[in-house]
Amino acid sequence: MIKANDPYRKSWIEVTSHSDFPIQNIPFGICKTSDKTIYVGSRIGDYTINLNALHKLNYFNEISLDRDIFNKETLNDFLKLGKPIWRQVRDRIAEIFDSNNVMDESHKTVVLSKIDEVEMLMPVKVGDYTDFYSSRQHAYNIGCMFRDPNNALLPNWLHIPVGYHGRASSIILSGTNIYRPKGQKLPDDSDSPSFGPSKLLDFELEMAFITGQGKNLGETISTQEADDYIFGMCIFNDWSARDIQKWEYVPLGPFLGKSFASSISPWIVTLDALEPFRVAGEIQKPKVLPYLKFEGNKNIDINLEVLLGSYNFDPHLISKSNYKYMYWNMTQQLAHHTINGCNINAGDMMASGTISGNSPEAYGSMLELSWKGSKPIPMPDGSERKFLNDNDTLIMRAYCQSKI
Amino acid sequence: MIKANDPYRKSWIEVTSHSDFPIQNIPFGICKTSDKTIYVGSRIGDYTINLNALHKLNYFNEISLDRDIFNKETLNDFLKLGKPIWRQVRDRIAEIFDSNNVMDESHKTVVLSKIDEVEMLMPVKVGDYTDFYSSRQHAYNIGCMFRDPNNALLPNWLHIPVGYHGRASSIILSGTNIYRPKGQKLPDDSDSPSFGPSKLLDFELEMAFITGQGKNLGETISTQEADDYIFGMCIFNDWSARDIQKWEYVPLGPFLGKSFASSISPWIVTLDALEPFRVAGEIQKPKVLPYLKFEGNKNIDINLEVLLGSYNFDPHLISKSNYKYMYWNMTQQLAHHTINGCNINAGDMMASGTISGNSPEAYGSMLELSWKGSKPIPMPDGSERKFLNDNDTLIMRAYCQSKI
């Protein structure tokens, strides 16, 4: 039992019943206050917690931590410390803010900030970024649209958590405006490409996990060990330019159709906090090779929502999916990624691939929701969308629902 | 005229006539001496130059440089300074070691070390790594072997410098042993994969360039501007496990067949130093889109050699290629990479892809040299190679030849 996961615990910080930040969450992120102080923070209800200030006030004295571990502009140094320390820190935060404890008012002043007075920064300096392709429905949909519905899944898909390396430099914080990318596209009925802005700009609903420090080059991380190397998760929007991608991706995979931007949520929710929401995944047939076998429930029940808004209308729900729909789970992804001896570092990011459920309302991209543009999606103002328009706003939400 | 490129300059450091390190080279790297001092260094003849010591002795006082810019474990901070500073520093080094100048003996003692008393370290902390596929002969060979000799080049190849994101964490220094990777492969005449060590381990002869700090996300770097963002080049061996690669790479590109290791040379030769060796590339037909047009000679005449050695025989020449054979040049690669607004950072690495010349002796991989294993390569001890054996040593050499 992870202490911080006690479902009955309440905090002395007020938390509304529908908050994404009950005391059972305790995510980690990088905060910047109006006086330009930057610190590793957490959040309960509508308050950020300055972990650096807490540490300086000796709240973490029982844990082996460098004096400046929370006086940082990224989580990377904290990520290097490993799961036992991550867990001790989160458990201790739960204890400090437990309604059975109190905090000196003078401490509250330096430790707590109202969330609307804090700017969230990129939580991690991403080393390497990998994108998987692990939702069966998504891979099936793409195969149907671009290849053959009767052989929609390629021969390797049920044997390998297919993935590819992505661009780390263009991973940005949610809220940052993105530019519609320009590039080469092959117009229909033409043999030679044209140049211009992408006309098929899309989102991809994904979740990503962030790793701690791995092993040396040449060593592997087994499915049994994998969870120990996963710090936590964030929401991941793998913006995609379908027309650029389609022309460029053969034979070496997506490149400029993806690398113009990927947006992540500012808070990293620990894998520990997600443990109560573990569920079984789909039974994998054919049987996977031994190095991809795993024990226990390794999927997670995370409700996912995508909303699209624009000048004329408020954000409007266009997709309702769930992380539990993944065919390949994180332990398999990490075991596969390292089976060749590839090393991982603290701050690497591995995204799930588009998470599409089995019903059309649960598809995780415009490409699938509009079925390649053939089924335009009605909007509240009477307009339609096949792909994204300029000035559209895309919101992704992820939350777990306690059964208590 | 770049001062340091004066072809008639001689150094007061002795340099043999066939040295790769005449005073016209002045590469940059990270050196570690027996007393564990680590510094940014250069090299002339068989001596490394401690640039940090030079700087502390006020040799760079005319250049705007932080006091500790060479007191670093990577070149990254130096890379952020940009081409005018890189050039000033290299020009100044050429001047300091010019045979018309002298150096105090007490300075020599702290500045110079014999190369065999110095350990070379990874020169750069690689941020993002991209691998291109820019040798026409290589792309043609692969197309012939795995697809259709009549349509060997895919439709996009002559329009796009095709590339993909690679793994940065597993880029290691030349001389580091690598482990034969394990993974999934599809045996011939089977529908389901097996697991085990790669049986088709290969090298790929490549060159890579290292970037300075680019522009902001959403901005582009034109072919005209590209050279200003390229610091220099190193040799790059893109180790490849062909059997793993073949099974995994559809549809998202190479992944574990590459990410187990890539080896680079310790010295980065500046683009400035390579300017005298510029040559014209192949005329590109069909004409490229305007953003890929360029002016001047943008290929570089760099002689490349690959040698294979083992327990029973000394390293033996197996390929003789040249960087001038590239179809797409670096300015096109960088302009293409950023045309969608993708940002680049100081310390990013972009490799050429396998450099194969038009004749079979100039092919840059075992896959091509042995034509997929059908033409085994004879070795001096009477053995043959289709791919690499355990305990083989692979050496890549790159040099430019002055016409003087």
Task: Report on this structure.
Two copies of one chain form a homodimer. The longest helix of chain A is centred in the first third of the chain and has 14 residues, at 83-96. Chain A is α+β, with helices and mostly antiparallel strands and 404 residues long. The mean pLDDT of chain A is 97. Chain A starts with 28 loop residues before the first strand and ends in a 5-residue tail after the last strand. In chain A, strands 6, 7, 8, 12, 13, 15, 16 and 21 form an eight-stranded mixed β-sheet that branches. Chain A has a five-stranded antiparallel β-sheet with strand order 4-3-2-1-5. In chain A, strands 20-19-24 form a three-stranded antiparallel β-sheet, with no helix packed on it. The first copy, chain A, has helices spanning 51-56, 76-79, 83-96, 105-111, 136-146, 223-226, 242-248, 271-274, 330-338, 366-369, and strands spanning 29-33, 38-44, 47-50, 112-114, 118-121, 129-132, 163-166, 171-173, 182-185, 194-197, 201-202, 205-211, 230-237, 240-241, 262-264, 269-270, 278-279, 299-300, 303-310, 313-322, 349-351, 377-378, 384-385, 393-399. Chain A folds into two domains: 29-121, Roll (SH3 type barrels); 129-399, Fumarylacetoacetase-like, C-terminal domain (Fumarylacetoacetate hydrolase, domain 2, Alpha-Beta Complex). Chain A contains ten helices and 24 strands. At the A-B interface, β7, β9 and α7 of A face β7, β9 and α7 of B.
